[in-house]
UniProtKB/TrEMBL annotation:
Native source organism of the sequence: Centropus bengalensis
Protein name: ARMD3 protein
Stored InterPro entries: ARM-type_fold, ARMD3-like, ARMH3_C
Source lineage: Eukaryota, Metazoa, Chordata, Craniata, Vertebrata
Record's keyword annotation contains Transmembrane helix: yes
GO cellular component, one term: membrane
C-alpha cells in the first residue's frame, strides 16, 4: 500500500505510486506511431514537434521495435514526418533546423535497421512514398546544399554532413543503398569543394567532407556513370585541391604522431628496461603491443584523388606550413568517447601540432612524406586484416604515383631534397638507425627505402605474395622512368640488390610450403627481370661506372643463389606439371645472369691462382670484372622497360568493394548518438526570435 505524506494540510500520494513521467517529445512520437494523423486533433502538431529537443534513442528504438507489418500501418505518418522534416530545413529558426536534421538521422537509420532484408525501393517508399520521392529528395538535397554553402552556423554544417554520412552508410554495401540515386541526381559535390577550399570550414568539417566524398565516389562506380567520379577527375582549383590534401595530411599526421607517442611510451616502460638487460631477443614480441588503429577512410580519399585527378599529383609535393600554424577553433569541441582513428576526424588541438619536424633543423613536410611515414608504420605488421588492407592500399597509391610522369619528375628532382624518417621494424640482426644521420635526398630514395624495408622484413610463413608483387612492380616502374629519362640517382643500390637476392633465397628455401599457396615463379621472374634491367640498361641510369661494376660484383658474390634458382626452375620446367611453363620463363630470364657468372668466375679463380691469393678482396674482384667486360657476350632481352599500367576495374574491384564496406560499417558505428549531441547546438541557438 502506498504511503501518504502530509504537507500544507493536504494529503497526497507519495512519488512511489506515480506513473513514469514521459517528456512531451516522447508523447508526440507515440502519436506518430499510431494509425491516426497526429495533426488531426492538433493542427500545430508538426510546428510544435520541431521545437522539442529530439530524443534520438527513443525514436530509433521505437522504429526498430516494430515489425514490417506494423511499420506499414503507420507508413503515412512516417512519410508525413519525413516530409515535415524537409520543410523544417527551410525554416528561419535554427533550432527547428537542428531538430529536423537529427530527426531525419533517426528516421533513416531506424527504418533501414528494420528493413535490412528488403530492397532499397521499399525503404524509399517507407520513408517518403514512391509518388513523392523524387520531389522530396530533391528538396532535401537542395536544403542540405544551401545549409552547407551558407555563411551561417558551423554546427548546422556539421549536422548536415553527419546526416549525409548517415544516409550514405546505412547499408554495409553502399552500392545497394538506392537512396543514393537521389544524391547522384542532386549533387552536393560543389558544396563539398567549398568546404575544402575555405580554411575555416576545412578546419571544422574537412575530415567529414573528405570521407563523404570518398564514399560517394564509390557508389556503383563500375556499373553506371557516377557524377562524383566525373567531377572529381576534372577539379583544377588549386585552393580546393590543396585543401583536400591538407585534410588528408593532417589525419595521417595524427596517426603518425599517435604511433610515435606510443612507441616512446613503450620504450620508456619496464619492458624496455628488461629487454635492455637480456638483449633484444624479445623485441619483436614487445613491438606487437604498439598498435594504433589504421585509417582506411582517409587513405581511400587519398587513393581516389591520386587515381582520378592528375592535378592532385602536384599537391603531394606541396609543403604544408599551415600544419604547424593552425589555431584552435573558437567553437567548443564536443567531448565524445575515444574512438578509433579510422573513424573520427582529428581533434583541432592535434591538428595544430600535427606534423612533427623531421629533424632538429625543422624542415617543411608535405603530403607525400607524411604518407610514406604512415605507410612505413602500417606495412610493418600485415598479420592484422585492417593493416593488411591498409598496406595493400598504400602500395596501390604508390603504384599510381610511380606510373605518373609528373610525380616521377618531382620524386627524382635533385633540387627537392628531404630527410624522411621512415619507421623500421625492430629486428634482432640490425641496430636502430639514428634519425639525425639521415641524409637529404630526392623523395624517390624514400620510396625505394620503403620498398627495400618491406622486402627485408616480410619473409615469413604467412607470405604476403600480393604485397611483394606490388612492391617489385613499384621498383620496376621507377627504374623504367630513370632509364627513359636517363636519371642517374645517387642511391645505395646495393641494399636493393641484396634484398632482392635474399628474397630469391627465401623463395627457394620454402619452395614446398609456398608452392602449395602461391605461384612463386611470377615473383621470381619479376625479381630476375629487375636484375636484367640493371644489367641491360644500368649504364644509362646508375650514378657512376663503379656502380655498374658493383652490380656485377654482387651477382658474382651471390652466384650460389642464382645457381640454385636455375637448378630449381630447370627441374620444374623439365617435368610435366602445373609449374612447367612459369618455371621455364624464369629459366630463360636467367640467361644473362648465368652468362655473367660463367664468364667471370673462371677469370677470378685464375687471377687468384696466378697471384697465390686464397681469398680475393672486393677491389681485386672488381679489377678482374673491369678488365674482362670486353669478352663478355650478353643477349638483348625485349620488354624489360615495359609494364602493364594499373587498372582498378579489372583487377581490384573486389578489394575496393570489401574495403568500402568495411569503411561504411566503421563510419556508421561512430556516428553514435553522442556525436549528434544537442547540448552544444542549443547553446549556439539559445534564443528564438
Amino acid at each position: 500500500m502506498a504511503q501518504t505524506e502530509k504537507k500544507g494540510g493536504l494529503l497526497r500520494k507519495s512519488s512511489a505510486s506515480k506513473k513514469p513521467w514521459k517528456e512531451k517529445v516522447v508523447l508526440m512520437y507515440d502519436e506518430i506511431f499510431t494509425t491516426e494523423d497526429p495533426s488531426k486533433h492538433n493542427p500545430r502538431f508538426w510546428e510544435e514537434l520541431f521545437l522539442m529537443k529530439v530524443n534520438l534513442e527513443y525514436l530509433e528504438g521505437k522504429l526498430e521495435a516494430l515489425d514490417g507489418e506494423e511499420l506499414m500501418k503507420i507508413k503515412d505518418n512516417i512519410n508525413s514526418l519525413f516530409q515535415h522534416c524537409i520543410q523544417a530545413l527551410g525554416e528561419e529558426h535554427p533550432i527547428r533546423v537542428v531538430n529536423a536534421l537529427q530527426t531525419l538521422c533517426a528516421l533513416i537509420r531506424g527504418v533501414h535497421q528494420k528493413n535490412k532484408s528488403t530492397s532499397g525501393f521499399d525503404i524509399i517508399n517507407m520513408l517518403v512514398g514512391f509518388d513523392k520521392a523524387e520531389l522530396c529528395m530533391k528538396n532535401l538535397m537542395e536544403s542540405l546544399d544551401s545549409l552547407l554553402c551558407a555563411e551561417g552556423s558551423e554546427s548546422l554544417k556539421s549536422l548536415c554532413l553527419k546526416l549525409l554520412l548517415c544516409l550514405v552508410t546505412v547499408t554495409d554495401n553502399i552500392s545497394q543503398n538506392t537512396i543514393l540515386e537521389y544524391v547522384m541526381i542532386n549533387s552536393i559535390f560543389e558544396a563539398i569543394l567549398q568546404i575544402l577550399s575555405s580554411p575555416l570550414s576545412r578546419r571544422e568539417h574537412g575530415y567529414d567532407a573528405v570521407v563523404l566524398l570518398a564514399l560517394l565516389v564509390n557508389y556503383r562506380k563500375y556499373e553506371s556513370v557516377n557524377p562524383y567520379i566525373v567531377k572529381l577527375s576534372i577539379v583544377d582549383d588549386e585552393a580546393t585541391l590543396n585543401g583536400m590534401g591538407l585534410v588528408i595530411a593532417q589525419a595521417l599526421s595524427e596517426y603518425n604522431r599517435q604511433y610515435k607517442d606510443k612507441e616512446e611510451e613503450h620504450q620508456s616502460g619496464f619492458f624496455s628496461a628488461l629487454t635492455n638487460m637480456v638483449g633484444s631477443m624479445f623485441i619483436a614480441d614487445a613491438d606487437e603491443k604498439i598498435s594504433v588503429q589504421t585509417n582506411e577512410a582517409i587513405l581511400l580519399a587519398l587513393y581516389e584523388a591520386v587515381h582520378l585527378n592528375r592535378n592532385f599529383i602536384t599537391v603531394l609535393a606541396q609543403s604544408h606550413p599551415e600544419m604547424g600554424l593552425m589555431t584552435t577553433p573558437t567553437s567548443p569541441i564536443p567531448t565524445t568517447p575515444v574512438t578509433p582513428l579510422g573513424t573520427t576526424p582529428p581533434s583541432s588541438d592535434v591538428i595544430s601540432s600535427a606534423e612533427l619536424p623531421l629533424d632538429a633543423d625543422v624542415q617543411t613536410s608535405n603530403l607525400l612524406i607524411t604518407f610514406l611515414k604512415y605507410s612505413s608504420i602500417v606495412m610493418q605488421d600485415t598479420k592484422d586484416e585492417h593493416r593488411l588492407h591498409s598496406g595493400k592500399l598504400c602500395l596501390i597509391i604508390l603504384t599510381c604515383i610511380a606510373e605518373d610522369q609528373y610525380a616521377n619528375a618531382f620524386l627524382h628532382d635533385d633540387n627537392m631534397n628531404f630527410r624522411v624518417n621512415l619507421h623500421r621494424m625492430p629486428m634482432r640482426h640490425r641496430k636502430k638507425a639514428a634519425d639525425k644521420n639521415l641524409p637529404c635526398r630526392p623523395l624517390v630514395c624514400a620510396v625505394l627505402d620503403l620498398m627495400v624495408e618491406f622486402i627485408v622484413t616480410h619473409m615469413m610463413k604467412e607470405f604476403p605474395m600480393d604485397l611483394y608483387v606490388r612492391c617489385i612492380q613499384i621498383v620496376h616502374k621507377l627504374l623504367c622512368y630513370q632509364k627513359k629519362c636517363r636519371v642517374r640517382l645517387h642511391y645505395t643500390w646495393r641494399e636493393l640488390w641484396s634484398a632482392l637476392i635474399n628474397l630469391l633465397k627465401f623463395l627457394m628455401s620454402n619452395e614446398t610450403v609456398l608452392l602449395a599457396k602461391h605461384n612463386i615463379f611470377t615473383l621470381a621472374l619479376m625479381v630476375v627481370n629487375l636484375f636484367n634491367m640493371f644489367i641491360t640498361y644500368g649504364d644509362t641510369f646508375l650514378p657512376t661506372p663503379s656502380s655498374y661494376d658493383e652490380l656485377y660484383y654482387e651477382i658474382i658474390r651471390m652466384h650460389q643463389n642464382f645457381d640454385n634458382l636455375y637448378s630449381m626452375v630447370l627441374r620444374l620446367s623439365t617435368n610435366a606439371g602445373q609449374w612447367k611453363e612459369p618455371a621455364s620463363k624464369v629459366t630463360h630470364a636467367l640467361v644473362n645472369i648465368r652468362a655473367i657468372i660463367n664468364h667471370f668466375n673462371p677469370k677470378i679463380e685464375s687471377y687468384a691462382a696466378v697471384n697465390h691469393i686464397s681469398q680475393l678482396s672486393e677491389d681485386q674482384v672488381l679489377e678482374v670484372v673491369r678488365s674482362n667486360y670486353d669478352t663478355l657476350t650478353l643477349k638483348l632481352q625485349d620488354g624489360l622497360d615495359q609494364y602493364e599500367r594499373y587498372s582498378e576495374q579489372h583487377k581490384e574491384a573486389a578489394f575496393f568493394k570489401e574495403l568500402v564496406r568495411s569503411i561504411s560499417i566503421n563510419v556508421r558505428k561512430n556516428l553514435a548518438f553522442n556525436t549528434l549531441s544537442q547540448e552544444l547546438l542549443l547553446k549556439e541557438f539559445s534564443t528564438i526570435s
